[in-house]
Amino acid sequence: MKKLVRVASGFMLALMIVFLPGCTSTTTLGGILQSQQEGIWVTGTGEVNAAPDIAILQLGISAQRASVAEAQAEAATAMDKVMTALKQSRVADKDIQTQYFSIQQVTRWDQDRQQEIVIGYRVSNMVMAKIREIDKTGSIIDAVAEVGGDLTRIDNISFSIDDPSEYRKEARDKAMADAKAKAEQLADLSGVRLGKPTYISESIYYPVYPPQFRMTEAPAAAPAPATPISPGEMKISLDIQVVYAILD
Question: What pTM was estimated for this model as a whole?
Answer without folding.
Answer: 0.68
